[in-house]
Structures are given as structure tokens and as C-alpha cells.
Design goal:
- Helix 2 packs antiparallel against helix 5, helix 3 packs parallel to helix 4 and helix 6 packs parallel to helix 7.
- The chain is an alpha/beta fold.
- It contains 8 helices and 7 strands; from the N terminus they run H-H-H-E-H-E-H-E-H-E-H-E-H-E-E.
- The protein has a 7-stranded mixed β-sheet, sandwiched between helices.
Length: 219
């Protein structure tokens, strides 16, 4: 299909997403600071709905960026809940905190700065209370490590969402050795072999191209 038709379908699907000014500001600022890697409105709403369906009260996010998905998740858990988001870049964290404040959810969101491998390991070491939902949208080379940490930081019944697992089809190309494709392949292999997860994955097509998400249930 041509790009214009793909964009038209995406625009039609996005009419289901009720995006207010705070969400729009967070999404569009990401488009400026880190173009091409922002979470789409339809995925943000999907995360929100999954958190509501699960009845999540504690959510862990790998990769804050400008806080767009964080707002969706924080609104799902509400003031009685907690969202912990792990972000490498301090400038991103500062920007995200501003958007979270504008959205009225900053009081129940914690952003931990630094490499997610380190911050998540510290959470495991200190016996962090288990999370009900985990969203991973961070560097793909470290995905297998993040999946292992997610398993350690959740209880049975928790939901996992892993973004960007198709990489324009490169995930199925053994010759594609770039870190993103290799990380996605390793993550899918880990989900398939790790008895702690029951998973599936879906291809997606939109203005940002051909990609996909994996969704798993913590056994």
C-alpha cells in the first residue's frame, strides 16, 4: 500500500484516541527532540487500556523520553497508584517532568535517571514491590536484560508490552546484525523460551513504517 493510504488509515484510527493538550504537547515535543521514536497515539491509548483492564496500580516503564506514554499510564493507575519510569538522559527526564506536571500526574510518577540496566538492578536488590504492568521502549540491544528484570520485578498475572520488535522486517533477517534488530530477535527468543512469560507479537504498519509489539503475561 502507498504511504498516503497508510497515513489516512492511521489518521482514521487515531480518531478513537482522546488526546488532550498535555498529551499532544508531550508527543509533539518528542517529535522535535527525538524525531521518529515517539510513541504513537494509538499505542499510548492501548497502554492506557491494558493498564485499566489489568487493574494495574503499579507500572514500570523502561524509557521515559518526553513522558507521553508515562502520562497515559499514570492516568490509568490514578493517584492511588504509582508509575516508575527509567530514563537514561537527564534532559529527557527534565522535559518529561514538565509534561507530567502539566498533565496533573507528577505526584504519582517517579523518574529514575541513569542506565536502565543499573537502575532496574538496584530495584531488584532493594526488593521493590512487584509491578502489575511493564512497558519496555528503550535501547533494543539491552532488551534481553530488561525482560529478565521485568520478570524479577513482577508477580504472576502482570502484563508486559515490548515495543519495536519488527524493525522494518529486519527481525526475521539473520544477516541483519545491527544492534536494534539483533536485540529484537534475542528478546523474542527469550520470550519464547522463558517459562515465566506467555507471549505473542503483532506486526504494525503506520506513518513511522513497519514494526510491531510483543505482549506477554507473567506466568
Amino acid at each position: 500500500m502507498d504511504e498516503a493510504r497508510i497515513a489516512a488509515v492511521d489518521a482514521q484510527l487515531t480518531t478513537l484516541v482522546a488526546e488532550d493538550a498535555a498529551l499532544a504537547d508531550a508527543r509533539t515535543s518528542t517529535e522535535v527532540t527525538s524525531p521518529g521514536i515517539e510513541v504513537a497515539p494509538t499505542l499510548g491509548k492501548l497502554l492506557h487500556l491494558l493498564a485499566l483492564i489489568r487493574g494495574a496500580r503499579r507500572v514500570l516503564e523502561f524509557g521515559t523520553l518526553a513522558g507521553y506514554s508515562t502520562i497515559w499510564l499514570a492516568r490509568a493507575v490514578g493517584p492511588a497508584g504509582r508509575v516508575v519510569s527509567l530514563e537514561l538522559d537527564r534532559d529527557n527526564a527534565t522535559l518529561a517532568r514538565r509534561h507530567l506536571t502539566d498533565a496533573g500526574v507528577s505526584a504519582w510518577v517517579d523518574i529514575l535517571c541513569g542506565p536502565a540496566e543499573r537502575t532496574s538492578a538496584l530495584m531488584v536488590e532493594r526488593g521493590e514491590a512487584p509491578f502489575d504492568l511493564v512497558f519496555i521502549d528503550a535501547d533494543k540491544a539491552s532488551l534481553p536484560t530488561y525482560l529478565d528484570r521485568a520478570a524479577e520485578l513482577t508477580r504472576p498475572g502482570a502484563v508486559l508490552v515490548l515495543d519495536n520488535v519488527v524493525r522494518g522486517g529486519r527481525v526475521a533477517d539473520a544477516a541483519a546484525s545491527d544492534p536494534d534488530a539483533a536485540g529484537a530477535r534475542a528478546a523474542l527468543a527469550a520470550l519464547a523460551s522463558d517459562e515465566r512469560w506467555d507471549a505473542t507479537a503483532l506486526q504494525t504498519l503506520g506513518p513511522k513504517g513497519w514494526d510491531g509489539i510483543a505482549i506477554a503475561l507473567r506466568r
